[in-house]
Specification:
iron, oxidoreductase activity, oxidoreductase, 27 helices, Cys_rich_dom, 660 residues, elongated, 3 domains, mainly alpha, 53% helix, four-stranded parallel β-sheet, Fumarate Reductase Iron-sulfur Protein, Chain B, domain 2, transmembrane
Length: 660
């Protein structure tokens, strides 16, 4: 049942022209962003696009993602049917039935019929879920229900058209269309005129909804249908656990204070966001009543781009600020609420990079506006003057050793540099972890040394807080020191030191083997260099907390669990949120040095979760996590539960050097 091509052809041509113009207008706005190379390693990008866009690997990692896969693949396969539908409206002879042999056409028609039913069922499930149990507060929007209703209407119109054609005897492939045939049986008693009317109404309903849907997409959040697949292709090939360097020359602008200071990929991200809410559900700030919501950050970036984009393309200046109050602006309190835990990055099914954008805006506030929380002033001054957050004299760095004979690192004589870090040098609790590590080094017969008073802060908090200028200076000094000392291998006990030395310092030409203490201890155990008394469980039930900077940022999950199992005789108890889905302690991103004035304290949220496992010990791999867990336990008045680093568990179980 075909329409008059004379009527339909201009309608289709106009719809396609408007769609193309709308897409051009929207996507051309990303050109106002700065250049960024996202085309290298083409084969790897194609592989990632296939795995994450077409196979939907991240989508199905959450239960409701399976429903989305049905909609996605139904939509993809039915795109062939819809293309035929539109072409046949202009060229009636351009039908697959006349172009393909029956051996190909019949299976294809069977797939169209079955997938239309699957899509309809998935849409109904999505509508019920959106109405009854929405993925986040505010998800019950007219747009969401409208989009789902249009998809459902397309499926119903498809069945109405083909059922009427089968009932009239005009569909030769009826035997391959079980759903449409079942509906046709219900129409068997109707007259030819009624069937003809049903077919025509269904055809035009399908055409109208399809053309409207096509032209509505560029103006809705469902623009991700067009942007998500290429966004998976353009994704960062490595975990986005660092930031690009800045060049500090007179006249340069630092950070991102306006929409055109983002890169084109940052802006493309905003069009790829479907506002599914997964980042919001994972974000520790959003979960504890802070003003930060990664989903809304992306929404505001898109709104800001739409407000300023055309003006910027014409060479004008943006009229809507990126940071501030109002629609399309991101509040400073939201930016300072980020713990840089990377949960949003791990949760996003289309690899939107929310966290790096926040750091770019922090850079602008710190370096261009000198606008940052008051408590950070002391931190910045202490770092600049004494190279540590507490402002303690550098000569005090080695005093943690007490009377122990800890050697300084010597090139050619010492194999490993033990980078103690600021917490391990100055924090009274973390010093105990440092001493435990020296016991492990000595028990295993490892050649190691420290820098003593020459050691400086790695600068992690500075970079994540946006003080790139001071970080740049400290990084250059540290790199020069490592090169001067001839350092080749570094062992760290702090994940923040680990990720900075391993990832950030590569930008300064430093290529070293940097090993977190969890992996280092695991390797010593595997080599038989440590002899542990692990027959009796120590510390009661051990609940393990994943460090964001060791886990999500660097993929180290198994090593600490293996170490705990060897040290205690059994695997640790897992929290409900663990591994890549772990919940932050609240201290990352420089939050260690800031007060939590808004919402619930993040560490209390995490400690409450840990206590649900009835732990005797909460085990950590990070000095920041240890501090936050201990503070949380004090607030909860649970003196019976202890917090220990994995190194302390191992040191407690040492029986002496292994025989080798």
């Amino acid at each position: 049942m075909q329409p008059n091509p004379v009527i339909f052809t201009p309608l289709l041509a106009a719809a396609c022209a408007i769609f193309a113009w709308s897409c051009y207008r929207r996507f051309s706005l990303v050109a106002v962003g700065a250049a960024e190379d996202r085309l290298s390693s083409f084969p790897e990008r194609l592989k990632g696009m296939f795995l994450f866009a077409f196979l939907q690997k991240r989508v199905v990692s959450r239960p409701f993602g399976i429903n989305h896969v049905f909609i996605f693949w139904s939509f993809l396969v039915l795109a062939v049917a819809n293309t035929e539908f539109l072409l046949a409206g202009v060229f009636p002879a351009a039908k697959l039935s006349s172009l393909l042999p029956a051996a190909l056409y019949l299976p294809l028609v069977f797939a169209f019929d079955l997938l239309s039913l699957c899509a309809l069922a998935a849409v109904v499930i999505a509508l019920v879920r959106r109405a009854v149990a929405p993925p986040y507060e505010g998800a019950r929007t007219g747009e969401a229900f409208g989009i789902l209703s249009m998809i459902g209407t397309l499926m119903l119109a498809y069945f109405g058209l083909h059922a009427a054609e089968i009932a009239m005897g005009q569909e030769q492939a009826a035997q391959a269309m079980p759903v449409s045939s079942a509906l046709a049986a219900m129409l068997a008693g109707e007259g030819s005129e009624t069937l003809k009317s049903v077919a025509q109404l269904s055809w035009w309903l399908h055409a109208a909804v399809l053309l409207f849907f096509m032209n509505y997409l560029p103006y809705s959040k469902h623009m991700h249908i067009l942007a998500a697949i290429p966004n998976c292709f353009f994704k960062e090939l490595e975990t986005p656990n660092t930031q690009p360097r800045e060049e500090f020359e007179e006249g340069n602008v630092f950070g991102t204070g306006s929409i055109d200071r983002f890169t084109w990929k940052d802006l493309f991200d905003s069009f790829s966001c479907t506002e599914c809410g997964r980042c919001e559900k994972s974000c520790p700030a959003a979960n504890t009543g802070k003003p930060l919501n990664p989903r809304l950050v992306m929404h505001d970036i898109k709104v800001n781009l739409l407000a300023n984009g055309d003006l910027l393309k014409r060479g004008g200046e943006p009229t809507v600020p990126m940071i501030g109050e109002g629609e399309g602006c991101i509040k400073p309190d939201a930016l300072w609420s980020c713990t840089s835990c990377g949960a949003c990055l791990a949760a996003c099914p289309v690899f939107i990079e929310q966290m790096p954008k926040i750091t770019k805006m922090r850079r602008h506030l710190v370096q261009m506006e000198a606008d940052f929380p008051e408590e950070l002033l002391n931190l910045f001054e202490n770092m600049e003057q004494r190279s540590n957050p507490w402002g303690i004299a550098p000569g005090e760095r080695g005093k943690w050793a007490g009377g122990r004979d800890v050697q300084l690192f010597e090139a050619g004589k010492t194999e490993y540099l033990y980078f103690v870090g600021c917490a391990g040098s100055f924090d009274s609790r973390s010093k105990q972890v440092t001493l435990a590590m020296t016991q492990i080094f000595e028990a295993a017969g490892v050649s190691y040394g420290i820098l003593g008073k020459d050691e400086k802060c790695c600068g992690d908090s500075l970079r994540r807080l946006g003080n790139e200028y001071l970080f740049d200076r400290m990084a250059k000094e540290n790199v020069a020191l490592f090169q001067e000392k001839g350092v080749k291998k570094i062992v760290t006990q702090c994940p923040h030191c680990f990720t900075t030395l391993k990832n950030d310092y590569k930008q300064y030409g430093l290529e070293l083997e940097v090993i977190p203490h969890a992996e280092f201890i695991e390797s010593l155990i595997a080599q038989g260099k440590l002899k542990l008394d692990h027959h009796a469980k120590k510390g009661g039930n051990i609940v393990f907390h994943d460090s964001c900077y060791l886990g999500r940022h660097n993929g180290v999950y198994e090593a600490p669990r293996t170490v705990i199992a060897h040290a205690t005789g059994s695997a640790p108890t897992e929290m409900e949120r663990s591994r890549e889905n772990s919940f932050c302690c609240g201290a990352g991103g420089g939050r260690m040095w800031m007060e939590e004035h808004l919402g619930e304290r993040i560490n209390l949220n995490r400690v409450t979760e840990a206590l649900s496992g009835d732990p005797g010990t909460i085990c950590t791999t990070c000095p920041y996590c240890m501090t936050m867990m201990e503070d949380g336990l004090k607030d909860r008045s649970t003196g019976g539960t202890k917090v220990k680093d994995i190194a302390e568990l191992v040191a407690e179980g040492l029986k002496g050097p292994a025989k080798g």
